[in-house]
Amino acid sequence: VLQEMAKAECHFTNGTEEVRYMQRYFYNRLQFLMFDSDVGHFVEFTPYGEKWAQAANSLLQWMEQRRTAVDWYCRNNYKVFTP
To answer: Which residue, 34, 60, 67, 83, is most buried by CB atoms nearer than 10 A?
Structure first.
């Protein structure tokens, strides 16, 4: 069975002072691509992910939306994500 999965994560340190947004992509339980807000672009882990990273990083408007997800996704939903 072939499986593909995408996962978005928010990591909070000191409440909302230090927030890290990560978007991870898996294929057959192997991570091939990841966006990390601390890095600011997609990073590949396999040759398959390299093509995806090049394509995603070239989409300027979409990349800006990923970079600002720390504010509109993580900080905005802080009370939902934490107990």
So the answer is: 34
